Amino acid sequence: FEDRPGGDIVYALNTKKDVENLKNKPFVLKEKCMYRLQISFRVQHEIVSGLKFTNKVYKAGIRVAKEEEMLGSYAPQAEPYTITVPRRTWEETPSGWLARGGCKAESSFSDDDGVTHLAYSYAFEIKTDWK
User: Fold this and answer.
1) Whole-model pTM?
2) E strands along the chain, which residues?
């Protein structure tokens, strides 16, 4: 986030319990705030070819956004890879009374072989302020 009081929001998704708890702890996005996602991950055994990040946002059960970003191919290594989405710009949170309120989202990381490496759900609220 560019101007979020308290700094960035960080989630560790190391266990199934961490992933499950994510959807029960909504975070707040201020209208028109600028944000990016930074993702760190390890590849352990085989090359991951054509890794893709997909994010779908729902408001009142209706899909209002779908974003897909091709992340590339990654070889196994001991050190984690770190990538930022979007890579060159910032995303802007929608604004206005229609945008405000609670949203649910589903994200996944899948590869060219059709393997889903991680899928998770989360919740957030769009408000006029950070509180």
Assistant:
1) 0.84
2) 27-30, 34-35, 37-41, 48-59, 62-74, 81-85, 91-92, 101-110, 116-127
Residue 22 structure tokens:
């994510």
Contact 13, 120 (CB under 8 A): yes
Query: Which DSSP category does 48 fall into?
Result: E
Measured CA to CA, the distance from residue 29 to residue 127 in angstroms comes to 6
What confidence tens digit (pLDDT) does each residue in 16-52 have? 888 888 888 888 999 999 888 889 999 999 999 999 9
Q: What pLDDT, in 10s, does the model give residues 53-70? A: 999 999 999 999 999 999
Token representation of residue 31:
């209208």
